[in-house]
Amino acid sequence: MQLDLIHISIERQLLTGSRAGRQLCQYPVSTAKNGAGELNGSGCTPRGRHRVRARIGEGQPPGAVFIGRRPTGEVWSPELAATHPQRDWILTRILWLCGEEPGINRGADRDSQRRYIYLHGTGDDQPMGVPLSHGCIRLRNPDILALFEMTPAGCAVIIE
């Protein structure tokens, strides 16, 4: 069954997916270490109404590494992470968000899409329930795989 709404609570570090008001899934997440905010370059997680602009990574293996929304051919491992400690790991699947509120999260210096705000997988060594990202919403790899399968392009996303 496909979702029609994804709700992300920054305070609770929790994602809830639903269809027609009925909860279908719930996953712990990690939002921005810098808190909530919409400005480009802030490193914050943008609030408000969004939609899924693009689904990226279909058919890639769990742990597939993405740079610039393209698979590198690498698969995350603790050894790979130790070799590249500076990387912000974007893994497995990407749900790229587009803001729906002009002046809040769409347009000018507040555009979620131009900020490359995603829901994406992260390394197994990263904790959930703790704000640590650079603005995106991180999920465990099995969780982003399941969420990706349920989420169509255009799905509504509310971040608050």
TrEMBL record:
Biological processes per GO annotation: cell wall organization; peptidoglycan-protein cross-linking; regulation of cell shape
GO cellular component assignments: extracellular region
Pathway where it operates: Cell wall biogenesis; peptidoglycan biosynthesis
All copies of domain L,D-TPase catalytic, residue ranges: 4-160
InterPro entries xref list: LD-transpeptidase (IPR050979), LD_TPept_cat_dom (IPR005490), Transpep_catalytic_dom (IPR038063)
Active site: H120 (proton donor/acceptor), C136 (nucleophile)
The UniProt record lists the keyword Hydrolase: yes
Molecular function in Gene Ontology: glycosyltransferase activity; peptidoglycan L,D-transpeptidase activity
Alphabetically ordered keywords of this record: Cell shape, Cell wall biogenesis/degradation, Glycosyltransferase, Hydrolase, Peptidoglycan synthesis, Transferase
UniProt record similarity statement: Belongs to the YkuD family.
UniProt-listed PANTHER family: L,D-TRANSPEPTIDASE (PTHR30582), L,D-TRANSPEPTIDASE ERFK_SRFK-RELATED (PTHR30582:SF24)
Protein known as: L,D-transpeptidase
Organism of origin: Halopseudomonas bauzanensis
